[in-house]
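BUG: 3D viewer hangs when loading the predicted structure for this chain

Environment: internal workstation, default settings.
Expected: structure renders.
Actual: progress bar stalls at 90%.

Input used:
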Amino acid sequence: MAALGPWFIPITVTLGGFLLGNVAKEDPFTHRPSHSTPKDTIVRMWAGMDANKSTSQDTSLAGATPQVVLYDERGDHIGDTWPDKNIPEGGFFDFIVTPDVEGNNVRPTYMQINHVMYDALCISAIQVQYAEGGSSTIYGDIPAKFCGWASYPSITQFRVGSDGKEIYQPWCFWMDGNDSGNPPWEGATWTPTDHFAQSVNLHIPDFDGQPDVISAYQANRDLICNSEGRLQAHPWVPETISFFRPPLSYGNTTSDLDGVSHEKNNLDPNIVIDDFVGANKWPQSSGNPHFVVDYEWHWNWHDFTNYKKRSLAAREASGSRHGKLYAVFESDDPTLSADYVCSQRNVFGPHYANAQERKFCNLDDRTVWPFCDDTHTTNCFDMESHTLWGDASAPAGGSVGTFGVGSEAVRTAILSLDGRSTLGL
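Structure tokens produced before the viewer hung:
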């Protein structure tokens, strides 16, 4: 049985890739939706946020709500939601999951997130608020910074630490219904590092940052990043998702499936890493000691297709919020340099400018440029006009280096963000 510790400790990740267990101080029930019922599970999902609050509508890390599907430890379907809203940048949306079966109060342990709309969303955190009380918080850091999924350095804030005075800003990971118009080249392998997932499944208990879990993941990240039952990204909504069967044991616990106590095995690579497990359809054959099970679920594609067409037409009529996604994320964080952001292969989104170091990261080609000033007038980025200027060229009838009095070199604009068109995001 999936057993949690005395309390669920969210896992945070430093820029250097070190894992930490940080107690979340957000009260999960302070803002519980008024129209929810005691039997409902609430899944609260936060979108990423740009540092420029005044231009947050232009550099949208926000996006359409995905579908959320919850399962219990057996892999039985508990309930799901319908994707018909939006999550604002830096804000959250509460998904109310009502159990399919009246009176079913089994705690969900598996979650599937399906982003089927063509409106990319960068997810910075997910909090599951259980019907019987308590909650589990999963930050975007594990997919984004630890496992290297397509992501962005969001500044959505959360209170952590024993006194709740420490502010933490997890990175967000991207999801999208059409991979933002960037499908893999023919014959290429799809990876969540280079592409936006359409579907993600995760096993909630395995994001509980107890000390032994932190140590094991730090020593072998395959325990979480290469374990399809724990965390997996898909280029499309799959027909099946993966479950551990029999359930993992987190200590001296009794499985609610077979009534037998099992030794702790949740950190055993022979049990959880994809290289060592097999995938089989439910139900499990009695002879196998362990493997990942695929559970088939059903989607009403006719209704979804009609809904998607209506939603797409409505967005085209009103104008996409992602029309200016490639505006500049203006940061003054001395710990997050433009050089670092540009060096991260999995970072996608608005171009990045750091005011402290006075450098600009062009995420199109991952090149770094100084800010324009009295010293740098070419091959620099102008923060006022949001223009990346290249080399100077000679004015008409002249040549570089031979300008007469009154002649000035004409700078070439490499990138003008105010007039930047969308790339399907």
